[in-house]
Amino acid sequence: MSESTATTGTGADRPLRLGTRRSALAMAQSGQVAERVSEVTGRDVELVEITTYGDVSREHLAQIGGTGVFVSALRDALLDGEIDFAVHSLKDLPTAQPDDLVIAAVPARVDPRDALVARDGLTFAELPDGARVGTGSPRRQAQLNAWAGSLGRRIEVVPIRGNVDTRIGYVRSGELDAVILAAAGLTRVGRIDEATELLDPHEILPAPGQGALAVECAATSTALAAQLAQLDDRDTRIAVTAERTLLAALEAGCSAPVGALADLRTNEQAVTEMRLRGVVGTTDGTTLVQLSTTGPVPASADDATAQSQQLGRDLADAMLAKGAAGLMGERAR
């Protein structure tokens, strides 16, 4: 694997060009995918660094609308032929898939939970009343405020952006008592040991698709898509399909205060089941709609996908019936 912004050679004798954001986390996860792609294709893979709007904007994601801000430039590069495929954090992808692009693989998911990095090794329940907790996510803000309220205390949620170093730096400098990050991101950059607590999904549901990656290429690149498909993990794809269908059915964007998590398990009759949990809430945490549903997962991949989509739609309908629409602010259209 090599890093470059240009390519020489043509056809099968040149390296495959993998488009990635420039952040340390994006480079780390893209590098891990590049190694696997090189194994299955027998070709070198070079990383092509691309700057997205979300990387250069100084506004908070809730203000600029998180949907697509980290992926549009990568998709443009794919369609322009500047890169052969791209790696995205799946939670950053809009739920509507363009006809001219295909998600060729969703590799096995890393821990989908959120992680707390707090001063003095504290857990969330041990944070003092009025603790300053950094996150730029309305989803996290809603659930953190609700959790704090259930513990009989309040927190001050401070909007932050930046890479892993920047965010953890707020804690190390004493500016914040704690920050919340994705456990998967900490794992991929080798810093998961700095988490003082992995947050139980019963308290904080992650973003739909959190912990999973999407490997995307042009729909016309059928041979490459077939090779990339060897990286696909069936259970992960089924789970994130349910979560993203829920998000789409709620007509909510990536920055909406929506959490979702699907997990597969085997019941006493040895039937594989999926449990899908979802939450929508006001950012002050005073009102949450949190529901779950369970259904069997067929053995056929196509049937399993259809079932996961149905579970997502069914749960969205139930949440909307409980008033979820009024808790999300402006819904995506």
General description of the model:
Its EC number is 2.5.1.61. Pfam families: Porphobil_deam, Porphobil_deamC. It comes from Streptomyces durbertensis. This protein has about 325 residues and is of the alpha/beta class. The chain folds into three domains: about 1-105 and about 210-230, 3-Layer(aba) Sandwich (D-Maltodextrin-Binding Protein, domain 2); about 115-200, Periplasmic binding protein-like II (D-Maltodextrin-Binding Protein, domain 2); about 235-325, Porphobilinogen deaminase, C-terminal domain (Double Stranded RNA Binding Domain, 2-Layer Sandwich), CATH 3.30.160. The chain is about 30% helix and about 25% strand. The chain is built from ten helices and 14 strands. The protein has helices at about 25-40, 55, 60-65, 70-80, 140-150, 165-170, 185-190, 220-230, 235-250, 300-320; strands spanning about 1-5, 15-20, 45-50, 85-90, 100-105, 115-120, 130-135, 155-160, 180, 195-200, 215-220, 260-265, 270-280, 290-295. A six-stranded mixed β-sheet has the order 1-3-2-4-11-5, sandwiched between helices. The protein has a five-stranded mixed β-sheet with strand order 8-7-9-6-10, with helices on both faces. It has a three-stranded antiparallel β-sheet with strand order 12-13-14. Helix 9 (about 235-250) runs parallel beside helix 10. The longest helix is centred in the C-terminal third of the chain and has 21 residues, at about 300-320. It starts with a strand and ends in a 12-residue tail after the last helix.
